[in-house]
User: Fold this.
Amino acid sequence: MPSSLLAADYSAALQYLKTVEAVGSTETDAVMRHLRSATLNDIYVKNGRIRGDGTMLHDTYQTYRKRSVR
Assistant:
């Protein structure tokens, strides 16, 4: 089972490779322009967006567990 860090690294590499394929170039400006305009979705990121400053925002879920009564 991959850790969260491994899943995040896989997601970043996958998004980059998909973008290079879509753009047809590895030119930094073209790749970043495409990434900033796209919504990122894969196994790790749902509804991800890259802001102008390079920060990625995506949906997360929090869960809480009830304390067991002893």
Summary: The chain has a mean pLDDT of 90.
